[in-house]
Input
Amino acid sequence: KKRKNIIRLESSKHTVISEHNINKQHAFDWENVRILDTEIHYKKRLISEMLHIKEQKHGINLNTDTELLDSAY
Output
């Protein structure tokens, strides 16, 4: 619900999701999201998230959080 509502905020407070929604007129299907992975350990969870971001072919993530991912992955 938070992500749906942020689109209505002033442009300085837009997220990548809201910017994509506004600029591409692409609505996200918030009712059918999937959890790709679960991990209780924080560092392993970060690595898992980075790997899932890197695997995306048409992702909207800015990839700034994947810069720390070791090239071995």
